[in-house]
Amino acid sequence: MNKYAVIVAGGSGVRMGSTLPKQFLPVCGKPVLWHSLETFLAAAPDMRIILVLPKDHIPTGQEIIGTTSDPARITITTGGETRFHSVKNGLAAIQAPGVVFVHDAVRCLLSTGLIHRCYESTVEKGNAIPAIQPVDTLRIETPDGSQVIDRTKVRIIQTPQTFFSDILQKAFEQPYDVAFTDEASVVEKLGVAIHLVEGEATNIKITRPLDILLAEKILKENLRA
Ligand SMILES: Nc1ccn([C@@H]2O[C@H](COP(=O)(O)OP(=O)(O)OP(=O)(O)O)[C@@H](O)[C@H]2O)c(=O)n1
Ligand SMILES: C[C@](O)(CO)[C@H](O)COP(=O)(O)O
């Protein structure tokens, strides 16, 4: 079956507060984005990657692709106004039916094992959304204050969110809604059931400066293991 990774790197990284968007910042000497590309290239020899980049950073992206182990398997497309629009642009570059992994470029610590788990679960159940359990106590704000909620019923959602291309492309024909914070929310609006798979605690989304330090530490430990 054809395998496509749509790796979205079209954001500006406001919460990181750096001039250079966070996907280009170094972690262990290589750009964040490079680590994500290499893991997808390593996951399957027939994996093709569609990399979604901000318009102004396409030359930087091309340079990074040139330093990967297989630049020929990576094509570039331009990002949009929101993550939804960037994913939609990426999906437009898919030429033939297959399984599609939509992944945040800034979750650069995912393992090939997680990619394989998502693939197998998609083939079996139609889609796969990585999720982990919260470790903190959770409260929801109410008009009177706040109420504790049952954390055993809550999951933290990650990427790669994995689907068959036909359903994903159809879902992304829907008009944009601010409630679309990930692919699962877009596909679910078509009435499709969403299947969670076990995510990884180390599959963090690099968002703030602290996350760069955490990513360095996790990557060094992984390399040692
Ligand atoms: N218009 C956008 C916005 C986000 N993304 C990508 O979606 C992923 C997750 O988004 P997020 O962490 O929110 O990134 P930013 O939007 O860049 O960060 P911020 O919200 O802090 O500005 C990132 O890899 C980001 O580059 C994208 O491709 N296109
Ligand atoms: C897709 C995602 O990473 C799942 O946790 C998340 O929803 C992206 O959110 P952001 O607002 O773009 O950071």
TrEMBL record:
Pathway: Isoprenoid biosynthesis; isopentenyl diphosphate biosynthesis via DXP pathway; isopentenyl diphosphate from 1-deoxy-D-xylulose 5-phosphate: step 2/6. It is an enzyme of class 2 (transferase). Belongs to the IspD/TarI cytidylyltransferase family. IspD subfamily. NCBIfam families: ispD (TIGR00453), PRK00155.2-3 (NF001186). SUPFAM superfamilies: Nucleotide-diphospho-sugar transferases. One of its GO terms (molecular function) is 2-C-methyl-D-erythritol 4-phosphate cytidylyltransferase activity. PANTHER family: 2-C-METHYL-D-ERYTHRITOL 4-PHOSPHATE CYTIDYLYLTRANSFERASE, CHLOROPLASTIC. This is 2-C-methyl-D-erythritol 4-phosphate cytidylyltransferase. Its EC number is 2.7.7.60. Catalyzes the formation of 4-diphosphocytidyl-2-C-methyl-D-erythritol from CTP and 2-C-methyl-D-erythritol 4-phosphate (MEP). The record marks R15, K22 as: Transition state stabilizer. Pfam families: IspD (PF01128). GO terms for biological process: isopentenyl diphosphate biosynthetic process, methylerythritol 4-phosphate pathway. The record marks R151, K205 as: Positions MEP for the nucleophilic attack. The keyword Membrane does not apply. It catalyses: 2-C-methyl-D-erythritol 4-phosphate + CTP + H(+) = 4-CDP-2-C-methyl-D-erythritol + diphosphate. Keywords: Isoprene biosynthesis, Nucleotidyltransferase, Transferase. Signal peptide: none annotated.
